[in-house]
Amino acid sequence: MADTLDFNKLTRRGAMGVAGAATLAVTVPGLAHTPGRKPNFLFIMADDLGWADLSCYGRQEYETPVLDGLAAQGLKFNHGYANSAVCSATRVGLITGRYQYRVRVGLDEPLQTAGVGLEPDHPTLPSLLKAQGYHTALVGKWHLGLLPDYGPLKSGYDEFWGNRGGGVDYFTHRVAGQEDLWDGDVLIEEVGYYTDMLADRSIEFLDARAKEPDTPWLLSLHFTAPHWPWEGNNAEGRAESARIAREGSTLDDDHLDIYHYDGGSLETYAEMVTSLDANIGRVLARIAQLGMEQDTVVVFTSDNGGERFSYNWPFTGIKTELLEGGMRVPLIVKWPGLTLPGTETDVPALSMDFLPTFLAAAGGAPDPAYPADGKDLRPVLAGGTLPERTLYWRFVAKDQKAARRGEYKYLSINGEEYLFNVIEDPRERANLRGRMPEKFAELKSAFNDWNSGMLSSPDARTYRFTPRELADHFGWDG
């Protein structure tokens, strides 16, 4: 693709976004990567960040200038989806490029079953990129199985620094009274606010990569923010951390101590998200300072929809639910030489699409024995589209099922079935099942056919919110 951009293709919103791109330390947004060099990949995943929790997606109580700037320099997806409505299941889809229901580790919602994890012999995004000459690292959350049988270093990453479980206290780096901070396979103790520390470690990784400029790299930067515990990087957050360490769970023994259902506020949530945004800015600034920007693809997204302090407008539903708010997520891609600054797309995309996308750009392909369910998104990133496809989800809690094809979505919750036009009716209020029986039957049949090829397990764990935790879920306790 030529370096010259056709600004006539930009929307007015996009052009205004380009003008505001000074919020991020960057050079020329449309510059193609160095000829003959494979691109670097920085994949940033937030944890439990809701659809509209960035100001460029609609949040008004605070601003996220770094990620707004990234959107102004790249492509913003209006129909970005997570593979699941909870974290570890989505991470299985991301790292394998396939529906998570094809492997046992992907059936837990989220992973809680002892002795279950991502099998080391399964091809993964990092292992397949390693085969193409990439240096690979995971900084942050793993949540795909514990030592001694499972871990990032067993699944294709050259380096790992972060937590193995689903979340940790931001100050003590503990969960359920146990340390969960690792450098490789070594348990470590360090002082700091976890979001800051993940950015610090990422910058160290980039500095080391700059010493080997001919070696392309993958950095999976998986923050835990803004996942609970609800702790900002301030005196109030440190006090809450101390309270959690002292008192443990205030709900019951079935909940982790860091769950603290009685904690949090909109102000604390804003502190956590703006800290996330600022630390991403530090990482992107270092990429620019090291002269890597024109060779680096940047992706930002979330592992599922938002939780109790998120803003998901115009959608209903939250994490653990297959309503749009539980699985529609922010998704931004900046790909030098491919994405046009300040543009948007209505093409649906899923977490698992990034394995085939990255591999194709790196000159590789998925393992033939494990064909990808995801699609190469590069035509979309270049301003085009993809052939229409059907996307599928399921969730054990409340026996939830969903399928989306085009503008229509089949949804089933506890046996109650719906057909929605999620373009005209994003809040999923008008059930078209009776008006459009053929479309309803078509999507329901497609879901059943797809589901017949997926795994299930009676031992798989699932998770949902109840009125004990959320008053607005009074009807979800049956």
Summary?
By secondary structure, the chain is an alpha/beta fold.
Structural class: alpha/beta
Largest sheet properties: 10 strands, mixed
In spatial order, strands of the major sheet run 9-8-5-4-10-1-11-12-2-13
End-to-end CA span: 55 Å
The amount of helix comes to: 10-25%
What percent of residues are in strands?
Answer: 15-25%
Question: What would the average pLDDT be, to the nearest integer?
Answer: 92
Total number of β-strand segments?
Answer: 18
Outline type = globular
Radius of gyration over alpha carbons?
21 Å
Q: Which runs of at least 5 residues are low in confidence (pLDDT < 50)? A: 1-30
DSSP summary: helix tally: 11
The ordered H/E elements are HEHEEHHEEEEEEHEHHEHEEEHHEEEEH
Features:
single chain; 478 residues; ten-stranded mixed sheet; 18 strands; 25% helix
How would you describe this structure to a colleague?
With 478 residues, the chain is an alpha/beta fold. 25% of the residues lie in helices and 16% in strands. It is built from eleven helices and 18 strands. The longest helix has 24 residues, at 266-289. It is globular.
